[in-house]
Design goal:
Blueprint: E1 2-5, H1 10-21, E2 27-30, H2 41-44, E3 54-56, E4 61-63, H3 65-75, H4 86-107, H5 109-119, H6 123-147, H7 162-176, H8 185-194, H9 198-203
Parallel strand pairs: 1-2
Antiparallel strand pairs: 1-3, 3-4
């Protein structure tokens, strides 16, 4: 498989984690968002939405990280990223959706570029904007983690799930935007536990081939 990605992209980060947890090999093709390579016609032919990541599986080009990760779960079910019980799957998906639906979409690059260039936001304002939505989401995740008495080191149960895949990538972004993580000890504990696993370490932005 071939993964079109950018090292600092949160959606690319979460997909790398999922691929690594599944033990799947993939070739990375860097799409440098800083140089706006995603806006070039060559990449538009790969993804008309001009966003990363894209996963080339030889027989199809797949876009949108939630759809790709769900495909991975169905195509490569072991090790699972979702629990077997239908109610527990909904619980894990809800944790992931706080990041995927409520935090990341308002903090992604095209939103921040619009804030900078159309509305004159400086970097302090950008960090404040990102911190607002990250804080609201992490407050909710922290409360949900605290209410789950069965939880172990990870967001759910004793092994990583879809929720951890999403959360760890968002924690990385939070640190980049200088968000003080001190008020979320459980979120930090999950991030630390995941950081002990090779699948997460190998997916980290700073160790990707295009990191600089």
């Amino acid at each position: 498989m071939k993964l079109y990605s950018f090292f600092r992209s949160g959606t690319s980060h979460r997909l790398r984690i999922a691929l690594n947890l599944k033990g799947l090999a993939y070739e990375q093709v860097a799409v440098d968002l800083r140089r706006e390579e995603h806006l070039a016609q060559a990449f538009k032919a790969i993804n008309p939405q001009q966003l990363v990541p894209v996963l080339d599986t030889d027989d199809r080009l797949m876009t949108q990280s939630p759809a790709i990760i769900e495909w991975l779960e169905e195509r490569h079910p072991n090790p699972p990223l979702l629990p077997g019980d239908v109610g527990e799957r909904a619980q894990v998906r809800a944790l992931a959706a706080i990041v995927g639906c409520d935090i990341h979409p308002v903090n992604n690059r095209r939103i921040l570029e619009a804030l900078r260039h159309r509305f004159g936001a400086d970097e302090a304002a950008i960090n404040d904007w990102c911190g607002t939505w990250i804080g609201a989401g992490f407050d909710a995740i922290e409360a949900l983690l605290a209410s789950d008495r069965r939880r172990s080191d990870f967001c759910f149960g004793s092994s990583p799930t879809l929720a951890d895949v999403y959360l760890v990538a968002q924690v990385e972004s939070a640190r980049r935007f200088k968000v003080d993580m001190a008020r979320w000890p459980l979120v930090q504990a999950v991030d630390a536990a995941c950081g002990q696993l090779e699948a997460f370490r190998k997916a980290a932005p700073g160790v990707q081939p295009d990191a600089s």
